[in-house]
Amino acid sequence: MRSALRLLLQIFAYAAMAALLGYFATLPPYQYGDTERTTIKLSISHATNRIEPCVPLTQEEIAELAANMRRTEACERERLPLTVELDVDGENVVSLIQAPSGVWNDGPASIYERFDVSSGRHTVSVRMRDTARIEGWDYEKTETVDLAPGRYFSVTFKAETGGFKFR
């Protein structure tokens, strides 16, 4: 009798846990974003140019280095800040200057911004400077896109593939 009661309580406990798990798996419903607007995500991680240009080493300087440390150039570690601007329909929505990561400012500068805009047709422009130039931009892209409601539109960057990519 005692083992039958124990078995029933165990079945009840498992059923209650399964019901609780099922409830939280389906309810309350999760809404990713505003269903009437579009979310634009700007995601960039890029290593900018070095502050000081690399200096070529002479054959004598290379020979003085340990065998595992030999290289043809000597480069300072510190990199320039990354400057990025993003416009939607001519209105500036992101304007950032991001310092490089790392203890010696020698890593990539990373930017992640997200914001909502009204759905529909928009002109998106993005510009980036990763060199020491004062004026102008090293990379630019402008495109007219149709932004669907409740969807995400991402702006990413890879120098190896030619620059900015809109998706």
Q: Please state the overall shape, judged from the principal axes of the Cα atoms.
A: flat
Report mean pLDDT, rounded to a whole number. Answer: 94
CATH architecture of the largest domain: Sandwich
Strand content: 35-45%
Describe the overall structure.
This protein is α+β, with helices and mostly antiparallel strands. It has two domains: 1-30; 37-49 and 80-166, Immunoglobulin-like, CATH 2.60.40. The chain has two helices and ten strands. It has helices at 2-26, 59-64, and strands spanning 37-46, 55-56, 73-74, 82-88, 91-98, 109-118, 120-129, 139-147, 152-158, 163-166. The strands form three sheets. The protein has a four-stranded mixed sheet with strand order 6-1-9-10, with no helix packed on it. It has a four-stranded antiparallel sheet with strand order 5-4-7-8, with no helix packed on it. It has a two-stranded antiparallel ribbon with strand order 2-3. The mean pLDDT is 94.
Summarize the structure.
The chain is of the alpha+beta class.
